[in-house]
Amino acid sequence: MAEAGELVVSGAQQDDMLRVVAALAGILERVTERNDAVATPAEAAPASAFRATTKPGISVRAYVARIARFAGCSPACYVVAYIYLDRLLHRARRFALAVDSYSVHRLLITTVLAAVKFMDDVCYNNAYFAKVGGISLVEMNYLEVDFLFGVGFDLNVTPETFGHYCAVLQSEMLCAEAPSAPPRLQYCCLTESEDDAASCGSQQQLAA
């Protein structure tokens, strides 16, 4: 029997959800590890609502799985959350906001919340998402507002952009499901230019 608030979906939907979530987690884990290796010391890093004062004790993969278990949203929301994260990072480059161990969890819960509100007809409120994300309601509200201003309230996603990000996640899925394949470069749409953010046509390469 499902726990209170736990997402109840068909077997096929659950499989799609798990694959999308695992692909997103894999990309963010690699980006986080890379940025941790070159990060500015926490005490010297630029102030940001998305940077925690200490590293959360839960892994990126476990945190994404927790959100997926309790958020009650469609798999498409995670694709849109990925797009929103990319969009926010591109616009926030002047503030040196990066995906690392101090920021990735807050970035995730905030972009998923925004995607759910934009994509799904019915969703849980901010208090529920705050509980799922392990933060206070005040923090959740503040992060949501900071995100919206950070992306200039640009929440619309074209079918073309959605399709490009789906392709990136699909590539990640295929690689994860073929462990015996020879080493290869992985791709991540955490963009470096406005053209990339719009089309993902020129993807940043990350070593596996």
From TrEMBL:
Keyword Transit peptide: no
Lineage: superkingdom: Eukaryota
Protein name stated in the entry: Cyclin
Record GO biological process: cell division
Keyword Lyase in annotation: no
GO molecular function, one term: protein kinase binding
Family: Belongs to the cyclin family. Cyclin U/P subfamily.
SUPFAM superfamilies the UniProt entry points to: Cyclin-like (SSF47954)
Organism the protein comes from: Triticum aestivum
Keywords for the protein's UniProt record, in alphabetical order: Cell cycle, Cell division, Cyclin
